[in-house]
Amino acid sequence: MALLEVRGLKKNFTGKNETLHAVKGIDFTIEEGECLGLVGESGCGKSTTANMTARLLKESEGDIFFLGKRINGGKRLCAAGKEMQMVFQNPADSFNPHYSVLECVMQGARYYKLYSKSELKERAMEWIKYVGLKESYLEKKIGELSGGECQRTAIARALICNPALIICDEATSALDVSVQAQVVELIRKLKEEKKVSFLFITHDLALTSSVCDRIAVMYSGRIVEMGETKAILQHPMHPYTQLLLSCVLPAVGDDEYRVPECSSFRGAGDGCDFYEFCPKICTQCKDRVPDLQEREGRMTACFQRGDPDE
Ligand SMILES: Nc1ncnc2c1ncn2[C@@H]1O[C@H](COP(=O)(O)OP(=O)(O)O)[C@@H](O)[C@H]1O
Ligand SMILES: [Mg+2]
């Protein structure tokens, strides 16, 4: 069994007048030491998926299996535990700015009572070094750190719990490009050296190429294409992935490239979510939602499963 298996996961947010279908039934797995990228524009349901997986948010439907056990379904929402850690876009928000780097990293394991007092400090110092922060940083206050240093501290805080899976929700999005590359490199090192698995969430498709083994492209609450990163980036099959890729490298100052915004208000039975924007529509698209089906080692949810270069 995979390290993580998500089956038929759905989330509806019910408002006064309408129901928003944020996640409409998604399935994916992550193996040990694998990094799965979850990619899609803002609002497509990535964070909702992450939060349900980490048990910070209750699902409307579906199952989540982690380390061979079903982790949802209990009466109370209960965090997934030390083996599944999360790193967010703005880590500063989840730290007390007056705490030192050392205190913040130790805090990660204190709750789980994993180590004795002296061992806890030793482990924290090891991980702080591993993520690339110098010893002089140990006593620095979080409030004095740069974005990249703060993100390294957040990763060290996750690592001290020896997690099997780390969910990075736009963890590099707020960083400068060069710092972003350093954090991505750290993730790669962790994957290779420590066999940590990652769910790497980003709206930036280009960023997946250096770190993700596979990617799942999400649009309007559904996965529309999933497969090996290289294959998808070189030959995207789904029209939405093709559009997303064409937007990856817009010329500087060129605002012509725009990805159509998804609508989470469309319900099941309204046809393909991408219908209105798709250049390749056929008669079925308006009335039915295409299933995610395998073809040439790739999963795509499109009635037009033709040659990717067509
Ligand atoms: N707590 C909430 N209540 C109501 N709507 C929400 C809530 N959280 C997210 N949404 C909506 O669900 C959709 C998906 O959001 P989100 O998962 O945050 O997307 P992403 O992370 O891909 O940007 C959006 O339309 C968002 O406005
Ligand atoms: Mg998000």
Automatic annotation (TrEMBL):
Residues 4-245 form the ABC transporter domain. SUPFAM superfamilies: P-loop containing nucleoside triphosphate hydrolases (SSF52540). One of its GO terms (molecular function) is ATP binding. Pfam families: ABC_tran, oligo_HPY. Gene3D superfamilies: P-loop containing nucleotide triphosphate hydrolases. Keywords: ATP-binding, Nucleotide-binding, Transport. InterPro entries: AAA+_ATPase (IPR003593), ABC_transp_ATP-bind (IPR050319), ABC_transporter-like_ATP-bd (IPR003439), Oligopep_ABC_C (IPR013563), P-loop_NTPase (IPR027417). This is ABC transporter ATP-binding protein. It comes from Blautia celeris.
